[in-house]
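Students often ask why inverse folding is considered easier than folding. One informal answer: many sequences map to the same fold, so there is more than one right answer. In these notes we will look at a single instance of the problem. The structure comes first.
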């Protein structure tokens, strides 16, 4: 049986690993949404459109980010 200090250290390590995992998932979601939104802004400027591509690509980014996060979470 492990001493109390070692048990607490293992629990703290497990908690910090979870924190790192979930913060990484958040940055991944933000990155996907940001990249697709900026691609939409660029595409709208290049084609001279109203912000149609920005809206479509940003919503696609939200869906893709949620899909990626849920896939990693489950």
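Output (designed amino acids):
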């Amino acid at each position: 049986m492990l001493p109390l200090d070692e048990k607490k250290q293992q629990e703290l390590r497990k908690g910090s690993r979870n924190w790192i995992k979930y913060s990484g998932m958040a940055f991944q979601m933000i990155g996907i949404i940001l990249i697709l939104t900026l691609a939409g802004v660029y595409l709208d400027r290049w084609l001279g459109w109203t912000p149609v591509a920005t809206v479509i690509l940003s919503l696609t980014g939200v869906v893709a980010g949620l899909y990626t996060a849920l896939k990693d979470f489950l």
